[in-house]
Write a structure and sequence with these properties.
alpha/beta; TIM Barrel; eight-stranded parallel β-barrel; 12 helices; 8 strands
Length: 285
């Protein structure tokens, strides 16, 4: 699996009518590829996948593969807490031929350890593409601990993990480790692992790629972006990233309910952060 280092978990643009805006999606894909992203994760959490229909989800994956082939890698989000649904999405996405699949640990229903293994065995049988696991216990209410990850790594197509649990951040035989949070990227790179599935890279992709290309300055660059990681977290990331992109002239529309646009108090630190980093012109009286 060679997906690159900076993989942006891309937001999904919606038009005024609430539908997926494919033209805006293609513009954003190309912008990200031009500004530091080696790959794009389509239909992940930041892509508001939980509010997409299957046809919208597969349509976005197909669009990304068609439009971005040769420009950047494409990782398709196909997770579900219903194994039958996850297998179906995996099979359909495999036909579209992205570079890899992202499959989240089943959420909400909290399966047992044996249930998680069976879940991933079924998904593994449904594809010939590399699978990137997604461990995010703060959303799923269960953790893929390192012993379980090592067991899952024995499955034929499971090739890596997007690790969003800092307490579990360590090398696993047979798995590539990708940072699942922006503030883990430097740690993952210091481990000699490939990179991260990131959100701040919508705005700071070139800076984040410098953390890969300039290891001697990695910690300095990381420190310079800490405020961005913090201020983008004032609301759900899909909402803050969409607001920030609009402020810098890349309007990708509003989020879908139950996500909602930022209010004035939430927008203020995002605007100030963008001004500090020179992405907006500071207004003067």
């Amino acid at each position: 699996m060679n997906l690159g280092a900076i993989l942006t978990a891309m937001v999904t643009p919606f038009g005024p009518d609430g539908r997926v805006d494919e033209e805006a999606a293609v513009r954003l894909m190309n912008h990200l590829a031009d500004h530091g992203s080696d790959g794009l994760v389509i239909c992940g959490t930041t892509g508001e996948v939980s509010t997409l229909s299957d046809s919208e989800q597969l349509g976005l994956i197909e669009l990304a593969v068609r439009e971005m082939s040769g420009r950047c890698t494409i990782v398709a989000g196909v997770g579900s807490n219903d194994t039958r649904h996850a297998v179906g999405l995996t099979e359909h996405a495999t036909e579209l031929r992205p570079d890899a699949l992202l499959s989240v640990n089943p959420y909400y229903n909290k399966p047992s350890r044996r249930g998680i293994v069976r879940h991933y065995q079924e998904i593994d049988r449904a594809t010939d593409l590399p699978i990137l696991l997604y461990n995010i216990p703060q959303r799923t209410a269960s953790n893929l601990d390192n012993e379980l990850l090592a067991e899952l790594a024995q499955l034929e197509h499971i090739a890596g993990v997007k690790q969003a649990n800092p307490e579990s951040l360590q090398k696993i035989d047979g798995l590539q480790i990708y940072a699942g949070n922006d503030d883990l990227l430097a740690d993952v790179l210091d481990m000699g692992e490939p990179g991260g599935v990131l959100v701040a890279s919508h705005l700071f992709g070139e800076d984040m790629h410098r953390m890969v290309d300039e290891p001697a300055r990695r910690r300095e660059i990381d420190a310079s972006l800490k405020d961005a990681y913090t201020d983008l977290a004032v609301a759900p990331l899909a909402c803050t990233v969409k607001a920030a992109l609009k402020l810098v002239g890349l309007d990708v529309g509003p989020p879908r309910l139950p996500y909602i646009e930022l209010d004035a108090d939430e927008l203020a630190p995002v605007r100030e952060m963008l001004e500090r980093h020179g992405l907006l012109q500071t207004t003067t009286a």
